[in-house]
Write a structure and sequence with these properties.
Radius of gyration: 24 Å
Strand content: under 5%
Largest sheet: 3 strands, antiparallel
Length: 445
Amino acid sequence: MGMLLLQVSCLCGSAPCLLCGCCPSAKNSTISRLLFTFFLFLGTLVSIIMIIPGVEKELHKLPGFCEGSGSVLGVQTNIDCGSFLGHKAVYRMGFAMAAFFFLFAMIMVCVRSSKDPRAAVQNGFWFFKFLVLVGITVGAFYIPDGAFTSVWFYFGVVGSFLFILIQLVLLIDFAHSWSQLWLRNAGESNAKGWYAALCIITFIFYATSIAAIVLLYVYYTKPEGCTEGKVLISINLILCLIVSAVSILPKIQDAQPHSGLLQASLITLYTIYVTWSALANVPTQTCNPTLLVRNSTGLATATRPLTTWWDAPSIVGLIIFILCTLFISVRSSDHPQVNKLMLTEESTAGVGSEAAAVESGLHHAYDNEQDGVSYNYTFFHLCLLLAALYIMMTLTNWYRPDESLQVLTSPWTAVWVKICSSWAGLLLYLWTLVAPLVLPDRDFS
């Protein structure tokens, strides 16, 4: 009974209590971020389950979800049971997660340290937070059909665009840190193996990018027509060549000795992936062999099996989503400029507590935010909100119902949002290269 009461108190208490017996000394701030990220992953898992064809066909049995399924507490929605139940369920799950993180983003505005009473809400009461998320999710499934899907689609587009930019910031930071680490190891050990590893990895990235570009030309263009695909692939290829050339210019190397082709090759590879993802949304069947033809739920069950949502760009996008959200949760950048941009600059608060925890050998988490928060609570929740919108769009392939509400189509909006995000990412990386030359009085170390 005593152990049960202890576990219940942990569910209602702080983040350290939840993990005190199963992890080494860790920061309270890190554990809280991981638990919020777990909520996001849990919602993502539920969304994935809902678009599995066998499960989607059974969604009409949810009370109150669609016409003819019965009502709960007298509430009856107007969602057509024969029209894209999986798509609509993912949209409502995405709305629930976005609303959950938006709620906490508003609650945590201007929290400066763990002494603020709201910090206890951020770092504790996890069982009640879970109940709040469940309650919002249940309520989201009673949203009337109407214009909800069409309007929420544009919210998803904007949120996804912003999250792709966050992915690019994290990728650029990761590439710079990776290159600096290996070059520093090479300089300290005088071992040529580090330089060889850099060359090999860079070669692999560029070789993969070149092979991917060739495949894009083969599968997403035709000798006659498909002009848009040819132009988009060619533009991004030229831009990647430009940033690669700029990264090894003598003046750039003098200003940033750690800059080089490793970072450029990684950015190039990601840009080619975004280009591939954009071309996979081109609504012309002749120019897009991976275009999914998706009829309504009713038609599909009557004539042929439901088409699965999973295609290669979606799977890669899901993996990148997982890595980026974990990256946001557990890591602070080595570069002060990135920390300021991402509002995650680690404070020195809790250093004494960390040393004491290490010396004592106890396995517990400690409060490292008594003198100041180590990350901006509101910005963190907004990042998870954008991540929820991004995964909602990824799982539905950025498709939306046509005017007849009988076929899901891939709009050109999705293509241009992804292409513009790739251009923005390349310009951002180019700025990190030339900024020390343009602004020589600022410290970019």
